[in-house]
């Protein structure tokens, strides 16, 4: 009899212990899903397992696909998203403060307003006071014991001296490797975070001679220094360095040489009339680069910290930043996989480096209209591929078609896709056109971000400017080459231009398609003009922001 009771007691104890471990993992997963840790894959995994979840993907496009309560994206690029899923409110004082990490990830005096509320949800809105305490909590109780709250807030990086880092490390050591690999992947990658506070600077002994603005060729001259940070899967991010510009030393078996584990960004530094250094929407570049690294299994990083590193680099190499309008310092953050192996696996080692080169107008002809060759023989990207990531592997396949287009007298390829010849983007730029709608009113049209098109910073800026002006309709939709030809023949195409970081805005005057040249209007009031009035207006507006000629939050001054 006592044996049965003992057996029953042991089994009960084991079940209770198992339940405790399972619930602890759920709670700890809630704690670890801080803004820097979260990814779309983590969100989908956690939701599919009914795990409590708090997260902040950068500019999520599909992060909430399994959460019917979440509003459709994309969300503002400088915001983060909170999702509290299947979490039961309790009147009892809990040892774990669910708002604790939210508070750490918010800026003081930032009001958070609910995005979604209905009778089946428990939605929370709150505000942080100057002392960092949550104030003005408001809630809409749910008739059911579970709730789903979706909101967004301004991000602030978690400091290196986070009091919970030690506890998180202890917790990680107790979680089975398989669970840790699939659920806490991003947390593991942040074992040691990228931190500008650890920066070490080694100055060069010999400064290079500067290149005159008139002699600058895009991407040919480089500054005296570079940023370099190593990453290891077990240790995390190493100490960041600014050191003399020099060659890299890599083994022939390094993964980047064999499997293209490489991504990069393109951004610029400008000098305004007062000599201040400015960056243009650097947070957008950081968010996009993190999406690119995630796509090819390279490590994530804190974008705010990299911006701080770039700022220190710009101060050190300030003499290389041209002080003439139309000229700037092009900055190229790059990450490569550096593990020495021929195995096809996510790299266990990586290198993040940043170099810079002074540049002038992207085209030798300056701000003049270009000719595009609409190619259907080759494809740049395809659905569910890597077209939306800024990977080196996306550019090499376009070099041969670009050479063929140049041989025919065209400056760039206009990539078409599908049997209906959908317009996607140009070699290194996004595409826009001004057309007349069915009522004869101007409309800005651009292909949508369907996963095969790079979400350009300049592209987003043009769309936002057009919406702010509120003078014409802005449409993101599929448009085919036959439709464009019909619109042109009907006189409904007013202008066309390309947009990108390197060139800013490039007017288009002609498209080669099916052995014919389709003429694109420029300025109807000036036969000698190289750009239409809308194209020129967008170009001037962006330049004015970049060079600090107008006050705008997109222009970030480097103190």
Question: What do you see in this structure?
Answer:
The protein is α+β, with helices and mostly antiparallel strands. The protein has three domains: 29-174, no CATH class; 192-359, D-amino Acid Aminotransferase, Chain A, domain 1 (2-Layer Sandwich), CATH 3.30.470; 370-552, D-amino Acid Aminotransferase, subunit A, domain 2 (D-amino Acid Aminotransferase, Chain A, domain 2, Alpha-Beta Barrel). It contains 13 helices and 23 strands. The strands form four sheets. Strands 5, 6, 7, 8, 9, 10, 11, 12, 13 and 23 form a ten-stranded mixed sheet that branches. Strands 14, 15, 16, 17, 18, 19, 20, 21 and 22 form a nine-stranded mixed sheet that branches. Strands 1-4 form a two-stranded antiparallel ribbon. α8 (282-295) crosses α9. It is globular. The termini are far apart.
At a glance:
The chain is of the alpha+beta class.
Keywords:
ten-stranded mixed beta sheet; alpha+beta; D-amino Acid Aminotransferase, Chain A, domain 1; 559 residues; D-amino Acid Aminotransferase, Chain A, domain 2; nine-stranded mixed beta sheet; 3 domains
Number of helices: 13
Distance between the termini: 79 Å
Count of β-strands: 23
- Let me know the largest β-sheet: 10 strands, mixed
Helix coverage percent? 25-40%
Low-confidence stretches: 27-43, 49-190
CATH homologous superfamily label of the largest domain: D-amino Acid Aminotransferase, subunit A, domain 2
Could you tell me the CATH topology label of the largest domain. Answer: D-amino Acid Aminotransferase, Chain A, domain 2
Rg (CA only): 26 Å
Strand content: 15-25%
* CATH-scheme architecture of the largest domain: Alpha-Beta Barrel
Oligomer: single chain
CATH class of the largest domain: Alpha Beta
Average pLDDT number: 77
Overall number of domains: 3
Q: What structural category do the secondary elements indicate?
A: alpha+beta
Tell me the overall shape: globular
Protein name: branched-chain-amino-acid transaminase
Cofactor: pyridoxal 5'-phosphate
InterPro entries: Aminotrans_IV (IPR001544), Aminotransferase-like (IPR036038), B_amino_transII (IPR005786), BCAT-like_C (IPR043132), BCAT-like_N (IPR043131), BCAT_family (IPR033939)
Family: Belongs to the class-IV pyridoxal-phosphate-dependent aminotransferase family.
């Amino acid at each position: 009899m006592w044996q049965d009771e003992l057996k029953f007691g042991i089994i009960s104890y084991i079940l209770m212990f198992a339940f405790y471990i399972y619930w602890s993992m759920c709670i700890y997963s809630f704690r670890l899903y801080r803004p820097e840790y979260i990814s779309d894959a983590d969100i989908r995994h956690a939701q599919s397992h009914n795990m409590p979840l708090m997260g902040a993907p950068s500019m999520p496009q599909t992060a909430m696909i399994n959460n019917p309560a979440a509003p459709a994206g994309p969300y503002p690029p400088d915001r983060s998203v909170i999702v509290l899923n299947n979490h039961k409110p309790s009147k009892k004082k809990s040892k774990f403060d669910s708002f604790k990490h939210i508070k750490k990830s918010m800026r003081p005096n930032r009001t958070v307003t609910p995005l979604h509320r209905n009778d089946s949800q428990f939605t929370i809105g709150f505000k942080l006071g100057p002392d960092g305490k949550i104030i003005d909590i408001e809630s809409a109780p749910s008739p059911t014991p579970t709730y789903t709250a979706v909101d967004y807030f301004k991000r602030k990086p978690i400091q290196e001296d986070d009091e919970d880092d030690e506890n998180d490390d202890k917790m990680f050591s107790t979680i089975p490797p398989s669970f840790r690999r699939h659920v806490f992947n991003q947390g593991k990658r942040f074992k040691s975070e990228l931190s500008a506070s650890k920066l070490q600077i080694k100055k060069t002994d010999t400064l290079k001679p500067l290149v005159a603005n008139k002699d600058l060729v895009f991407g040919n001259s480089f500054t005296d220094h570079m940023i370099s940070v190593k990453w290891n899967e077990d240790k995390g991010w190493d100490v960041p360095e600014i050191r003399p510009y020099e060659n890299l030393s890599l083994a022939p078996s390094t993964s980047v040489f064999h499997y293209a584990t490489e991504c990069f960004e393109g951004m610029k530094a400008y000098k305004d009339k007062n000599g201040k250094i400015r960056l243009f929407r650097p947070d957008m570049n950081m968010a996009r680069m993190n999406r690119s690294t995630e796509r090819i299994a390279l490590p994530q990083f804190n974008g705010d910290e990299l911006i701080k590193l770039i700022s220190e680099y710009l101060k050190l190499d300030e003499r290389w930043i041209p002080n003439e309008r139309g000229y700037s310092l092009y900055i190229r953050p790059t990450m490569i996989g550096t593990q020495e192996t021929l195995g096809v696996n996510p790299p266990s080692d990586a290198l993040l480096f940043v170099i810079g080169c002074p540049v002038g107008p992207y085209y030798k002809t300056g701000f003049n209209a270009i000719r595009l060759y609409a190619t259907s023989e080759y494809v740049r990207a395809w659905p569910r591929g890597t077209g939306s990531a800024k990977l080196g592997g996306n550019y090499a396949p376009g070099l041969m078609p670009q050479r063929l287009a140049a041989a025919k007298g065209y400056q760039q390829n206009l990539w078409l896709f599908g049997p209906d010849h959908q317009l996607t983007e140009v070699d290194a730029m996004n595409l826009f056109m001004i057309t007349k709608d069915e009522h004869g009113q101007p409309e800005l049209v651009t292909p949508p971000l369907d996963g095969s098109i790079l979400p350009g910073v300049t592209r987003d800026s043009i769309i936002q400017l057009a919406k702010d002006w509120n003078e014409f309709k802005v449409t993101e939709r599929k448009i085919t080459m036959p439709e464009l030809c019909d619109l042109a023949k009907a006189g409904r195409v007013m202008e066309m231009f390309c947009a990108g970081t390197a060139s800013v805005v490039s007017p288009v005057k002609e498209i080669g398609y099916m052995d014919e040249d389709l003429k694109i209007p420029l300025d109807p009031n000036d036969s000698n003009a190289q750009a239409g009035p809308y194209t020129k207006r967008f170009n001037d507006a962006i330049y004015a922001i970049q060079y600090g000629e107008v006050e705008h939050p997109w222009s970030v001054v480097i103190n």
